[in-house]
Amino acid sequence: MPILNFDVKTNRHLIMATLAEIKARVYKFGNKTADGNSKMKNLLGGKGANLAEMSSIGIPVPPGFTITTEVCTEYNELGKEIVINAITEEVESSMETIENTMGAKFGDKENPLLISVRSGARVSMPGMMDTVLNLGLNDKVVLGLAKKTKNERFAWDSYRRFIQMYGGVVLGMKPKTKEDIDPFEEIMEHLKDKRNIQLDTDFTVQDLKDLVYDFKDAVKKQTGHDFPTNPWDQLWGAVMAVFDSWNGNRAIYYRKMHGYPADWGTAVNVQAMVYGNMGENSGTGVCFTRDAGTGENVFNGEYLINAQGEDVVAGVRTPQQITKLGSQRWAELAKVEEADRAENYPSLEELMPSIYKELDEYQKKLEKHYSDMQDMEFTMQNGKLWILQTRNGKRTGAAMVKIAIDLLKEGAIDEKEALLRIEPNKLEELLHPVFDTNALKRAHVIAQGLPASPGAATGKLVFFADEADKYKYTILTRIETSPEDLEGMNIAKGILTARGGMTSHAAVVARGMGKCCVSGAGALKIDYKNRILRVDGKVYHEGDWISLNGSTGNIIEGKVATMEPELSGEFGEIMELTNKYATMQVRTNADTPKDAKIARNFGAQGIGLTRTEHMFFQVDRIRAMREMILADTIKGRKHALEDLLPMQRSDFEGIFEAMQGLPVTVRLLDPPLHEFVPHQLATQRELADDMHISLSAVKNKVAELEEFNPMLGHRGCRLGNTYPEITEMQTRAIIEAALNLKEKGIEAKPEIMVPLIGTVNEFIEQEKIIRSTANQVFKERNDTIEYLVGTMIEIPRAALMADKIAEHADFFSFGTNDLTQMAFGYSRDDAGKFLQVYLEKGILTVDPFEVLDQEGVGQLVIMGTERGRSTKPDLKVGICGEHGGEPSSVEFCYKTGMNYVSCSPFRVPIARLASAQAAIKDMA
Ligand code: ADP
Ligand code: MG
Ligand code: MG
Question: Is the dihedral of CA 608, 610, 611, 612 positive or negative?
Fold first, then answer.
């Protein structure tokens, strides 16, 4: 959205004049006051808003000011000159305020004030954007700084750091190629070698002076310009560089990954420097109010003496622990004796007890103030403590759950807030086995695919589904998978494909199974014939160990140790809480009693989708199924169906029994028949022999079943309407199964679902067959059960005709996979070819097969629900697409007024949480 809708060039002066008037663009903080506060993250960025908040509640933060995110957007639209002009006055007067507070002057040669220029977007994007420290130094100012502080070493150390950071961030002094090292690091390494020293802290004053000289020389050589000496030029350069970093590759990539829009922009924080590099009584550190890995309520962190800014994270020197407890825990792991520890690696608590006490007070105060775990940065200058940043700390899924429950028990937050604190998707970490973090550090990643289904898998390479049991642990590696591979996929520990996206067959099925899967790893060259995998010129053979990280998409050479996930008590407590607030139910998509049981343990309140065809792929059934398909006559088909009936019946009995009286939606046969017939010569021959027909007859039939566009072909209710005997058999199996359980005293509530309805007559025809078959069975058995007959809404026309369909159907279930496919006109099986490009180019912001397109496809869902309920007000409505387990889509379903969402077993806890959160947000 343009800020001003007239031409920038011709109206330049007018714009400049008006811009300066309209609004505040600079917000001051420091000296226990602030113009902003923590609620203003959108305008001031997270860092700026929290600096303001800390200042107001009396935490010592160095004074400074924040240039708003809006200015970043203005900069991108109107350019540098207009923006500098619009904010100069505010910036200059804010700088004066800093000068007065600090009793020093920016650019002054006797009593200089140095500043930092820090980026800070709405959300923290660690390491994605840039910061410059010690700004305001030049050859003259450095002398003043040395004299004022009586610390020549410190002054020159700051200067060399400044040139280094400014050179990298503002002047583009980056390594030339990815193999090169940083040009400044190179100079420092060179000097260290020459002087035979190891650490930055070993440099003498003369060394530092030499470095400054060499750095400036390198800048001149590489950029063709002298290093800027005027502090104000330096400042504007840095501010613009921070704005530019918002559109740097790293930041763009990070935004894409998290779906943050480009127009948020970043704020710029300009702040008086405090110095951790002033000597042995100074230092810098980071700390957390609780353990970000486990959630344990222990204050922890690391610090370095005589260091500045990033030194702690940069790993140049090994930082020490802040608390004594942490230090002792560290020593135990590092096998350091207590005496050695206390002497050489003391904690801050031991080394500087009074500073520690103050820090401990602030961390308690800040956690209480924000009622959440805080991640803080601090610096000590000559025995005085300054806090430079606080934010809600990033944490693992396990820590997230524990901290929320602990804060609830401590009375810091209430139940609703505790539930809102849980990021639904992060729960996934708690549901699958994970790699041992230590083992992962040593891992050699050979390629990267899509993180299609989270978890960790280690096994031996196999290339064929029917060989998935060849070794005890296998990774099924395919160019792509097909329904025929199902059993093998189930047996393998993990699934790896070279082709296909997040909704490819492999990905969808793996997620359903809760099985680790990496899909679409284009760098893999799979040679089925020789049973080898080539990556980057390296060859891996069948039987070689390989590991997959389904959460990152990493493919790792060899065997990586895994650990079982711990479903700790707090996780159960959170799930218990969801029941109290959720109004929309959560069902599961489950095709087997095993899946049904898993889902019930996760709290599923029914089955929203049982895909009957999956049962047909098992070895003993596929033969009967193929016979049915290949039969040329009704009689032949009926004969094969008779073989299938008892198998289906016992499948349903198993599922009904597992669900113990909860409703079970069974979908009638859906996929194109072509998926069931054999495509390999050997299996075709086997079938021909079995059926006493010729091989060519089998081949002809297979060819005959081939369709140009199977997704729009002979499938769904079109099968049941052309072969009514299939519907009859399936209905009979369902009803008989329910009656059998009734005899055993177990209740069953089948809901029979007709797929792929486009016209009301398609449904009416199927309903007739279902009801008459059910009545027939009731008569035979002289008993009845209650059941429903409903339909999927997955063809756009069905959503349009929903009022008519609802006159007949007992329930609707939105099949949003097909609905998305048909509304967009994207074939699910082929979308991989262009979706990736669309996402990269920003033509699409998210994959609509993953996140329900609420704007477009969502209209069909809303319309279908409203129209359906216009003729049948109490119509039961649910969703059974992949979207049923995706949090933002779950919230949408809640708003649409659905009775339930249904998702794969391993996503049930996530959907339950999302459902509770939607209800809580609605209460507010
Ligand atoms: P990031 O967002 O990458 O953490 P920061 O803006 O927080 O970047 O700054 C990087 C480092 O510099 C941090 O360690 C921070 O504490 C330190 N730093 C920033 N501003 C100052 C300052 N005014 N005085 C001392 N250290 C600072
Ligand atoms: Mg920081
Ligand atoms: Mg469908």
Answer: negative
Distances (CA, A) of 401 to 299, 376, 421: 18, 21, 8
**Of 72, 287, 432, 505, which one is the catalytic site residue?**
505
Q: Which two tokens stand for residue 58?
A: 């009396």
Name the residue among 726, 566, 589, 748 with its Cα closest to residue 657: 748
CB atoms within 10 A of CB 745: 6
pLDDT in tens, 369-400: 999 999 999 999 999 999 999 999 888 788 89
Q: What six digits make up the tokens of 191? A: 């000097």
| CA trace torsion 536, 539, 544, 545 (10° rounding) | -10
Structure tokens belonging to residue 562: 């895994």
Q: Are 395 and 570 in contact (CB under 8 A)?
A: no
Contact between 754 and 791 (Cβ < 8 Å): yes
pLDDT(17) > 60: no
CA of 421 to the centre of ligand 2 (A): 23
Pairwise CA distance, residues 438 & 608, whole Å: 40
Question: Which atom from ligand 1 is nearest to the alpha carbon of 310?
Answer: 14
Q: Whose CA is nearest to atom 26 of ligand 1?
A: 309
How confident is the model at residue 1, as a pLDDT? 41
Task: Count Cβ neighbours within 10 Å for each residue of 63-81 and write b for 16 or more, e otherwise.
Answer: bbbbbbbbbbbbbbebeee
Closest-CA residue, ligand 1 atom 20, reads 116
Spatial distance between the Cα atoms of 613 and 905, rounded to a whole number of angstroms: 18
Mean pLDDT of the chain: 91
Give 23-80 pLDDT, tens digit per residue.
899 999 999 999 999 999 999 999 999 999 999 999 999 999 999 999 999 999 999 9
Instruction: Give yes or no for a contact between 876 and 812, defined as CB atoms under 8 angstroms apart.
Output: yes
Ligand 1, CB cutoff 6 Å, lining residues:
62, 116, 118, 127, 131, 133, 271-274, 309-310, 377, 379, 388-389
Beta strand pairing call for 115-121 and 266-272: antiparallel
Q: What are phi and psi of 754, to 5 degrees?
A: -95, 125
Q: Which of 122, 133, 169 to mutate to test the pocket of ligand 1 (most atoms within 8 A of CB)?
A: 133
Name the active-site residue from 72, 287, 880, 893: 880
**Residue 844 near residue 838, CB atoms below 8 Å:** yes
* Residue 880 annotated as catalytic: yes
> What b/e sequence results for 486-499 when a residue is b if at least 16 CB atoms lie within 10 Å of its CB, and e otherwise?
bbbbbbbbbbbbbb
For residues 697-736, one letter each, b for 16 or more C-beta atoms within 10 angstroms of the residue's C-beta and e for the rest, the string is ebbebbeebeeeebeeeebbbbbbbebbbbbbbbbbbbbb
609 pLDDT band (50/70/90 cuts)? very high
Q: Ligand 1, residues 44, 95, 118: which to mutate, most atoms within 8 A of Cβ?
A: 118
Q: Under 8 Å CB-to-CB from 586, ≥6 apart: which residues?
A: 603, 604, 605, 900, 901, 902, 903, 908, 911, 912, 915
pTM to 2 decimals?
A: 0.81
Q: Is 505 a catalytic residue?
A: yes
Q: What is the mean pLDDT of residues 192-208?
A: 91
C-alpha distances (whole Å) from 769 to each of 645, 732, 754, 764, 811 are 16, 10, 11, 9, 17
> How far does CA 785 lie from the centroid of its chain?
44
The pLDDT score that the predictor gives to residue 623 is 85
Residues 75 and 83: their CA atoms lie apart, in Å, by 6
Distance CA 678, CA 702 (A): 8
Distances (CA, A) of 447 to 517, 521, 667: 14, 7, 39
Is residue 336 over pLDDT 90? Answer: no
Q: How confident is the model at residue 2 (pLDDT cuts 50, 70, 90)?
A: very low
Ligand nearest to the CA of 48: 1
